[in-house]
C-alpha cells in the first residue's frame, strides 16, 4: 500500500462516502436526463464509463460490508489488480469538468500547450542535429591534438589544456556531443 496510515479506518469511511456520493450523482443524472438520453445520447460513452465505475465501487463496498459484518473472510476486490486500476479510473471523471463553459479558458490553454509540444519536439530534434554535427567535427579536429603539441614551448596554454583533457572531453562522438552541449 502506498497510503499513509493504511490501517486507518477513515480511509474506508471516505471510500464509502464517495461511493454513496457517486451513486447519488448517477441517480440524479438518470432522473434528470432519462434512461434513453443517458445511455444512447451524445455523452453515452462517458455515462457508461461512469456507470461501470460506480458499479465496481458499489460491489467493492458490499464486499467490505460483508467482511465487516462477519460473513466470513470475503474476497476483497482490493486484491485484484484490474479492479484496483478500475478504481483509479475514477480520477478521470475530473476531465469531464473541462467540458463546462466555466473552464473554457483552461481548455484553450491546455490545447495550446499540447499544440506547442509538436513545435518543441522539432526544435529539440534540430538542436540535437546541430550538437551532433558540432560533436563530430570537434572529434575529428581534436583526434590528433597530442601529435601537434609535442614540445613544451610549441603550444599555447589552451592547447596544453586540450591535450591534457582530450580523452575526457572528445574521445568519442558522444563525449564530444556532451562537451558541445555543456558549452
Question: Please, could you describe this protein's structure?
Answer:
By secondary structure, this protein is an all-alpha fold. The chain is 71% helix and 0% strand.
Please name the defining characteristics of this protein.
single chain; 183 residues; mainly alpha
Topology:
Layout: H1 10-33, H2 35-40, H3 44-68, H4 81-88, H5 104-142, H6 145-148, H7 157-170, H8 173-182
Helix pairs in contact: 1-3, 5-8
What's the short story on this structure?
The chain is mainly α and 183 residues long.
| Strand count | 0
Count of runs of 4 or more consecutive helical residues: 8
Strand content: under 5%
Radius of gyration: 31 Å
Straight-line distance between termini:
45 Å
Structural class: mainly alpha
The whole-number mean of residue pLDDT values reads 79
Amino acid at each position: 500500500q502506498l497510503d499513509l496510515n493504511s490501517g486507518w479506518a477513515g480511509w474506508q469511511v471516505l471510500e464509502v462516502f464517495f461511493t454513496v456520493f457517486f451513486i447519488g450523482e448517477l441517480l440524479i443524472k438518470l432522473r434528470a436526463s432519462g434512461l434513453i438520453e443517458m445511455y444512447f445520447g451524445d455523452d453515452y460513452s462517458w455515462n457508461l464509463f461512469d456507470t461501470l465505475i460506480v458499479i465496481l465501487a458499489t460491489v467493492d463496498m458490499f464486499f467490505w460490508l460483508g467482511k465487516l459484518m462477519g460473513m466470513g473472510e470475503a474476497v476483497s476486490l482490493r486484491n485484484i489488480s484490474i479492479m484496483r486500476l478500475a478504481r483509479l479510473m475514477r480520477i478521470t471523471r475530473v476531465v469531464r469538468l473541462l467540458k463546462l463553459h466555466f473552464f473554457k479558458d483552461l481548455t484553450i490553454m491546455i490545447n495550446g500547450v499540447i499544440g506547442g509540444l509538436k513545435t518543441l519536439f522539432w526544435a529539440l530534434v534540430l538542436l540535437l542535429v546541430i550538437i551532433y554535427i558540432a560533436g563530430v567535427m570537434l572529434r575529428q579536429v581534436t583526434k590528433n591534438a597530442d601529435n601537434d603539441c609535442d614540445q613544451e614551448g610549441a603550444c599555447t596554454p589552451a592547447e596544453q589544456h586540450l591535450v591534457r583533457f582530450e580523452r575526457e572531453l572528445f574521445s568519442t562522438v558522444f563525449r564530444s556531443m556532451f562537451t558541445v552541449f555543456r558549452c
